[in-house]
Write a structure and sequence with these properties.
The complex is a heterodimer of chains A (246) and B (462). Chain A has a domain of 66 residues. Chain A is 37% helix and 26% strand. Chain A is an alpha/beta fold and 246 residues long. In chain A, the strands form two sheets. Chain A has a six-stranded mixed β-sheet with strand order 6-7-8-3-9-10, sandwiched between helices. A four-stranded antiparallel β-sheet of chain A has the order 2-1-4-5, covered by helices on one side. Chain B has 19 helices and no strands. About 2% of the residues of chain B have low confidence. By secondary structure, chain B is mostly helical. The longest helix of chain B has 35 residues. The relative contact order of chain B is 0.09. The chains are: A alpha/beta (246), B mainly alpha (462). At the A-B interface, helix 3 and helix 4 of A face helix 10 of B. Bound molecules: adenosine-5'-triphosphate and magnesium ion. The site of adenosine-5'-triphosphate has 13 residues of chain A, from strand 2 and helix 2.
């Protein structure tokens, strides 16, 4: 299916159908189906080791599932993994920028790989926005964790993608930057972009997400909209707790 | 007291086994033992073409070189491990959280390296040799002497490199320049008088076993070690390093990856010079061996055989350009593993200008101009072929994957026949080396397969 701007408006931009991923005997993602619409702020919640990161890696063509279909913005991820990564932005969970480049050089490299124009201005914007201009010329391996996280945030959004996959992006950021980043993300979604967000910090999900899915032992055990007056924490504890006892 | 050492060895073992899978890694020493056993069986064959004294000399220098390279690995290994596992995860870096001194930790670190690599490489080698003793028809006492003397040679190399790395920590890159001068100086002296090589005390020990050379070797080893330990500088990368954006420079090439490879090599410990060194050391050894060999058995042309080995050694430059990079920093970007590999090949070609210079020097030195073309063709074709094999087997992680017994075995199986064929041709019909570019289509085919292979597998997260 060709990507067509007109189609997208009300249709699904992220689609997973019957996706299973095994690591040897361990079934990390078990027959997962999900569909997410344009403009959604989707939160994938789940305990440690439940399969959130694996799901994101499958969606962005970084690992191949054993079975199932995956489409992102109309691109068949299994057939064209690089094509998907061209159009989306990704903040990986733990991958770090290469040790021996400076922060600025790294952003520069990303821009070159993504064949962007006005690289200098784009870099300037992000260093300013995330307030780490003083770290521009520092080698990535010498950066603090939070600063590295800022850099990873910048590289994910530097090409203004329509979809962003972000895996626990707030953990190491200080409160001021967290607030800024949250506002940025909310605004980003408001403009019609889509976010696929993985976290186990429920307050953040409650605050930001429009829809959540709960994954436990690789299976989706809950899917539904986020409402102001319904506590996600309650739903989470109830569903995961129940699931533990079956 | 030994708790720390024990944990460090355990840690090293676990790092290696998680990377390669336990069984494959455990097979590695077995493989080494098998090779040394087979090598020893050929010993009588070697003796028919080379006097025993020269053969023993060569073996001892191989062990010195071996110690040198493992010492060098320890020197660079720190940065390498650091990149891969993060500082805090290694015991050696956790001294701040442990109630022991840094010197103590590094002493343990050093001893661990010695023990670990001894067990991994030297011991299997010796065991292989021991198994060959009954077949070789040599006396047990003589075999024992030989075992001691090769071990001493290894330790001499190792402790010398340890001294170099301590010096390096104190005086920085000048040491590399000094080392370069030392290598060139040695080459000139050896050229002038080969018997200088016999100074090696462990060699004197095996030639005429007595207490003096034994004690001399041990004293040298202990002296080198204690000097380096005493002046050991625990250089934590405490200061932040700043650089201006190198991507803004005007460069003759477009690929950002090429620049990145260059920056990685330049900014990591040892700088670009380390590539030159790791390249010159093996070549010097090849040079010495060939030189000694051809002095006694003048059956081949030096330039031709040297060029064949130059081709092989030059392919290791690929290991350097992949050493400080990891695909996990690209895996979330729109780029294929094969694209990264292709760019590594470009860096490889660029850095190989060093090989070209060495080729010209050797050509001028030997004056074998009539063989210039076959030699050049052989060097380039063998380099291309070994590179293709390395990439097919090792992908973006040749330094890690080649430690896997199965992969190493496949590597040797693919390289050895070609190398032997080339050497034979060079001895018998030198001009037929002009046909060696026939290897290039083969290399290209292997590369094409490699791209497919590495694009279809998930890149591991080293
Ligand atoms: N490359 C791998 N090889 C083997 N097992 C893996 C691999 N990657 C993930 N797993 C396993 O798959 C399961 C799901 O892991 P995943 O990283 O997706 O969890 P997660 O939900 O992101 O957890 P966390 O909240 O801790 O980040 C875990 O049991 C993990 O150990
Ligand atoms: Mg995760």
């Amino acid at each position: 299916m060709e990507f067509n701007k007109g189609d997208i408006i009300l249709s699904e931009v992220i689609e997973l159908k019957g996706v299973t991923k095994k690591f040897g005997k361990l079934v990390a993602v078990n027959n997962v189906s999900l569909s997410i619409r344009k403009g959604e702020f989707f939160g994938l919640l789940g305990p440690n080791g439940s399969g959130k990161t694996t799901t994101i890696k499958i969606l962005t063509g970084q690992i191949k599932p054993n079975s199932g279909h995956v489409k992102v913005l109309g691109v068949d991820v299994l057939r064209n993994p690089v094509g998907v990564r061209e159009v989306v932005g990704i903040i990986p969970e733990q991958e770090t920028p290469p040790s021996f480049l400076t922060a600025e050089e790294y952003l520069h490299l990303v821009c070159k790989i993504r064949v962007l124009k006005d690289i200098g201005e784009k870099c300037d914007y992000w260093f300013k926005f995330l307030e780490f201009e003083d770290s521009r010329n520092v080698l990535c391996k010498d950066l603090s964790r939070g600063t590295r996280q800022k850099l990873m945030f910048a590289q994910a959004f530097i090409h203004s993608p329509n979809i962003a996959f972000i895996d626990e992006p707030l953990i190491n950021l200080d409160p001021v930057i967290q607030k800024k980043v949250k506002d940025y993300l909310l605004d980003y979604v408001k403009k019609g972009n889509t976010i696929f967000f993985s976290t186990h910090i429920l307050e953040v999900a409650q605050e930001l997400c429009t829809k959540v899915g709960i994954i436990h032992n690789g299976r989706i055990i809950y899917e539904g909209p986020v409402k102001k007056n319904v506590s996600l924490e309650k739903i989470f504890l109830e569903k995961v707790g129940k699931d533990n006892h079956v | 007291m030994f708790e720390l050492l024990k944990s460090m060895i355990k840690e090293e073992w676990r790092i290696h086994t998680t990377i390669f899978g336990g069984v494959m890694f455990a097979l590695f020493p077995l493989l080494i033992a098998t090779y040394s056993f087979l090598g020893c069986l050929f010993y009588p064959l070697f003796l028919t073409i080379l006097p025993v004294k020269q053969l023993i000399l060569i073996v001892h220098y191989l062990f010195v070189f071996f110690g040198l390279s493992i010492g060098g690995f320890g020197l660079l290994g720190r940065e390498f491990m650091n990149r891969r596992f993060g500082q805090a995860s290694l015991l050696a870096y956790s001294s701040r959280t442990l109630p022991v001194s840094e010197k103590f930790i590094f002493l343990n670190f050093f001893i661990k390296d010695v023990l670990y690599y001894f067990a991994l490489w030297i011991l299997p080698f010796i065991i292989g040799f021991a198994f060959a003793i009954p077949v070789l028809n040599i006396s047990f006492i003589y075999a024992l002497t030989a075992l001691i003397s090769v071990t001493l040679s290894f330790l001499l190399g190792l402790s010398f490199m340890f001294l170099i790395s301590t010096l390096y920590a104190h005086i920085g890159k000048i040491i590399l320049l000094l080392g370069l001068l030392l290598i060139i100086g040695l080459a000139i002296i050896i050229d002038y008088n080969v018997s200088v090589l016999e100074i090696l005390p462990s060699f004197s020990f095996v030639m005429s076993p007595s207490i003096t050379p034994l004690i001399t070797s041990i004293i040298i080893i202990l002296a080198l070690c204690s000097v380096s330990l005493f002046y050991l500088k625990v250089d934590y990368p405490t200061e932040q390093r700043f650089y201006n954006n190198a991507f803004k420079m005007k460069l003759p090439f477009k690929s950002p990856f090429l620049l990145k490879d260059f920056l990685d090599l330049d900014r990591s410990e040892g700088g670009l010079a380390k590539v030159l060194f790791s390249f010159l050391f093996p070549l010097l050894i090849v040079w010495v061996i060939l030189f000694v060999f051809l002095k006694f058995v003048p059956i081949g042309n030096f330039l031709l055989i040297f060029s064949i080995f130059l081709g092989l050694v030059s392919s290791t430059i690929y290991n350097w350009v992949t050493e400080f990079d990891t695909f996990s920093s690209y895996s979330f970007l729109p780029i294929k593993a094969s694209t990264v590999i292709k760019n590594k090949i470009k860096s490889y070609i660029l850095l190989n200008s060093v090989s070209a210079i060495i080729f010209v020097i050797i050509l001028l030195w030997t004056g074998s101009f009539s063989y210039a073309l076959p030699a050049l063709f052989a060097a380039i074709s063998i380099s291309a072929y070994s590179l293709a094999v390395t990439i097919y087997l090792g992908g973006l992680y040749p330094n890690i994957l080649l430690y896997n017994a199965r992969i190493l075995f496949a590597y040797i199986l693919s390289i050895m026949p070609i190398l032997s064929l080339a050497c034979t041709v060079s001895l018998l019909w030198p001009n037929y080396l002009l046909l060696s570019p026939l290897l290039i289509p083969l290399a290209l085919g292997i590369l094409w397969l490699s791209y497919k292979k590495w694009d279809s597998v998930e890149q591991p997260n080293y």
